[in-house]
């Protein structure tokens, strides 16, 4: 019963499409504008900084609360990992949006913050630094996802957290599959150019 509650509760929590809801307040539909991705970065591009920030906070909160609430009521680290993955799945394949959604980056970040606040902050800072150095958003994001399982292993985290990192990587590779094709073909835009490109749409 515990497993079922965690799966359903975390998936439904993750399914709340904040990146779709907040832009709607301004009459914007992220599914039809910008990158057409139901994520905080597109909410920022389509609906502006405030709606983007609210969407980001909501998407992070989904991952954080799924893990924190599960850990509070069911002190089993494997259940916490299950909660995190179900929240990410909910974001990626929302039942409220006909099983469509975003790419799970912010929700994964929220789960990491709940697992280990300091580690989560360090990963966030490394990600930002990588974006600043490379000036590419998506490639930097994918690099961090690829490094995550190795970081968990090197830091001596439990098997469950390595499994979480590997599963999160697999989900990220799937949701970013079109981006990966664009990167391989050499059509990936730098962050500043991408924002200008999608703002014009």
Kindly name the structural category: mainly alpha
Distance between the termini: 48 Å
Strand content: under 5%
Label the overall shape: globular
Instruction: Give the overall pLDDT as a whole number.
Output: 90
Helix content: over 70%
Number of strands: 0
Number of helices: 11
Largest sheet: none
Radius of gyration: 16 Å
List the quaternary state of the chains: single chain
- Counted up, domains total 1
- H-E order: HHHHHHHHHHH
The low-confidence parts are none
Can you offer a commentary on this structure?
There is one protein chain. The chain is an all-alpha fold and 201 residues long. The protein has one domain. Helix content is 76%, strand content 0%. It is built from 11 helices and no strands. It has helices at residues 2-15, 18-25, 40-47, 49-73, 77-92, 105-115, 117-134, 137-154, 159-175, 177-184, 191-199. The longest helix is centred in the N-terminal third of the chain and has 25 residues, at 49-73. It is globular and about 40 Å long. The mean pLDDT is 90.
Quick structural summary:
The chain has helices at 2-15, 18-25, 40-47, 49-73, 77-92, 105-115, 117-134, 137-154, 159-175, 177-184, 191-199. The longest helix is centred in the N-terminal third of the chain and has 25 residues, at 49-73.
Explain the layout of strands and helices:
Layout lengths: L1 H14 L2 H8 L14 H8 L1 H25 L3 H16 L12 H11 L1 H18 L2 H18 L4 H17 L1 H8 L6 H9 L2
Helix pairs in contact: 1-4, 1-5, 2-3, 2-4, 3-4, 4-5, 4-6, 5-6, 5-9, 6-7, 7-8, 8-9
């Amino acid at each position: 019963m515990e497993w079922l509650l965690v799966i359903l509760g975390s998936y439904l929590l993750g399914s709340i499409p904040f990146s779709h809801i907040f832009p709607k307040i301004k009459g914007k539909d992220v599914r039809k504008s910008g990158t057409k991705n139901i994520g905080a970065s597109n909410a920022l591009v389509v609906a502006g900084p405030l709606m983007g920030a609210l969407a980001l906070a909501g998407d992070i909160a989904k991952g954080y609360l799924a893990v924190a609430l599960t850990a509070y009521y069911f002190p089993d680290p494997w259940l916490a990992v299950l909660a995190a993955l179900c929240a990410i799945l909910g974001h990626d394949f929302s039942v409220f949006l006909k099983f469509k959604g975003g790419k799970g980056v912010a929700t994964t970040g929220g789960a990491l913050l709940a697992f280990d606040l300091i580690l989560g902050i360090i990963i966030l800072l490394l990600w930002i630094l990588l974006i600043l150095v490379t000036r590419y958003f998506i490639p930097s994001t994918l690099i961090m996802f690829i490094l995550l399982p190795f970081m968990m292993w090197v830091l001596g985290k439990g098997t469950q957290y390595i499994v979480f990192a590997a599963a999160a990587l697999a989900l990220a590779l799937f949701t970013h599959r079109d981006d990966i094709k664009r990167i391989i073909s050499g059509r990936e835009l730098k962050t500043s150019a991408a924002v200008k490109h999608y703002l014009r749409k």
